[in-house]
What does this fold into?
Amino acid sequence: MKDLKPLKTLISFNDAMKILLSHAKNVQDVELVSIEEANGRVLSEEVMAPIDVPHFDRSAMDGYAVKAEDTFGASLHNPVTLELSGSVFPGEIPDAIVEKGKCFKVSTGAMIPEGADSVVILEETETVEKKVFVYKPVFPGANITKKGADIKKGTKIISKGCYLTPSKIGAIASLGLKKIKVFRKPKIALIPTGNEIILPGENLQMGKVYNINTFALSALIKENGCIPIVFPLCPDENNELRKRLKEALNYDLIVIIGGSSVGERDIVMDVLMEIGEILFHGIAVKPGKPTLGAVVEEKLVIGMPGHPTSCLSNGYMILLPILRKIANLPPKNFQIVKGKLSKRISVTLGRMQFLSVKLNGEEVIPVFKESGTITSMAEADGYIEIPGNKELIERGEEVEVKIF
Amino acid sequence: MKDLKPLKTLISFNDAMKILLSHAKNVQDVELVSIEEANGRVLSEEVMAPIDVPHFDRSAMDGYAVKAEDTFGASLHNPVTLELSGSVFPGEIPDAIVEKGKCFKVSTGAMIPEGADSVVILEETETVEKKVFVYKPVFPGANITKKGADIKKGTKIISKGCYLTPSKIGAIASLGLKKIKVFRKPKIALIPTGNEIILPGENLQMGKVYNINTFALSALIKENGCIPIVFPLCPDENNELRKRLKEALNYDLIVIIGGSSVGERDIVMDVLMEIGEILFHGIAVKPGKPTLGAVVEEKLVIGMPGHPTSCLSNGYMILLPILRKIANLPPKNFQIVKGKLSKRISVTLGRMQFLSVKLNGEEVIPVFKESGTITSMAEADGYIEIPGNKELIERGEEVEVKIF
It folds into this structure.
């Protein structure tokens, strides 16, 4: 029977992140997705325009297609009179050309008939039967979008690595593309450990607790462009963990939950030392200290504490930036709310603190109790980060809350 | 053949929103979802705790369960010596009680044996065979989480209407709940109109353009907790639109794209006047002026311009708040970035402007060209809102960009 073994040296949060990020490889594999499914994905190739947009000279307004020179000199008191010789609606091909002294009715998006070089907008005309009175002159080119004026065939429209939003999806759709290439979503192996853990719906026996962490982390993983692969509960036995780790090597990142502390049954260190290389064990953060980084067959493994609050704060502070790097996503921009702390809090000097808080108007109320509590999570709207060199934050001091 | 009919009076953006929001009914229907699927949903009932959490007295640390009074007087130079009489790991039930002068090894999360009232943490002990040296006294209750201390059976854990995030999901999982009740996602009928529109992958004939708007708006709709129901392309014929509208009444909101302007084939007004009530036609925004609000059989209908940039800016400014209200979601918190305008822009006085921009470091570069252009969308990182009483924004002036 081995002894309990305290964590001896802690690595700083920044050093831990540098090490973890240097071993986190962003996914290079590509998949083809329909543009309906492409929002929030990351483009893995440049999008080049296969066509001119528009691919014909197009009216930008409802009005009349004219020869601009026919309108020169027109004014409110001396309108120019043109003869209406036809009309074009969007989607149609004009059936004649516009001759001198004549005009075509066009609506927005319609193809400009040959012979016309500009459009007089509806509001600057009046029409009586076949006569169109034009009250204002137009320049050649007025209210016409020329073929290719928006997008020239063969030019780059969107760069590789672009995070796709509704506006980019719209731009891609304008080119008639049905599918585009994006980076595959990384798959994150989640291995929950602990003899005490049971699944929701199971009968709650003495000494047991419901699984929390894979649910909270899976939600976080999905929010950050990755796919959680939740492994069956792993009992605290080296053989079982070894077996699961072997299978987990098929995925892009491995997260082991629980068993990373220093208890006798904290098997994670032992197994990882045996089959891989430990990068560090113990980070100077609170909560979340007993966190470890390791590499097994070039795959990054993160061991996270099983305490739900520690696990989730680790999820936001440590796992999230790694997920986004692997998924080729830009850094997450948390919504930041400024407020005043509702009570004085003392901080463990030397450990960066992740303090969960709720908001009540301007007031920022700490809800963190201890690493093991659920209410710290249930009530939290977000968190504040407190650097390791602070000992105290006074009541009323301004703090920045990152909203979950 | 009817005449072209200019928009006569414009309603202000704020008035338009008040009217639309007053007719937008938030969904009341409820559905049961598994906690794996609940992230980002809105809780439709209170979550009450069916159990105490923890449901037994639990060790909060790795260490030794003791009678606190046995440790009184312990110090680094005069440790108290206790006899190790057993151990408990998480998930186990202790097989004996802790007697005076004795202790039990416990690890974090383990059940506290009867007889013990506190835990001495590992770091403040040393163990030689069956002897445990305790170097620091503990108070009764130290390092123990009492049964129900975190959550008391029968208390409310999360309120109705709560937006579910990973931390709330974790809290719900801790109660052993597999499924919870959330509001149904609203279904948004999207009816694209226009004879000129073709689908991606189709052969691009003269005068035709690819469908853009349903793709961009669907992405926006999904991002905001709703389900887009995209209707087949509607030709510019009153009968066809009437048929589609009838079917669309089965959904929670109806959005008609295109045909809301004043061209002869802008059929939307005609049909809506015939079968429903027009709330307004024309909003003082740029782009996006030819927007209409209507009610058909108590269902809100929004007619949006077909110009892709107008349609998408309408999507963000007008549609998004309505989607979120219907979906019971809190207002969207856009990420805001401050920067300096790269060039002077003049603004249409009297119309609130939605100007799409890209960011280059501190520089905010307008990319809006005209309502019909795609590049305005392809290059945009976000937008700035310019109130209707501004005529000019100078180069270098500070502006706030809402990131898409």
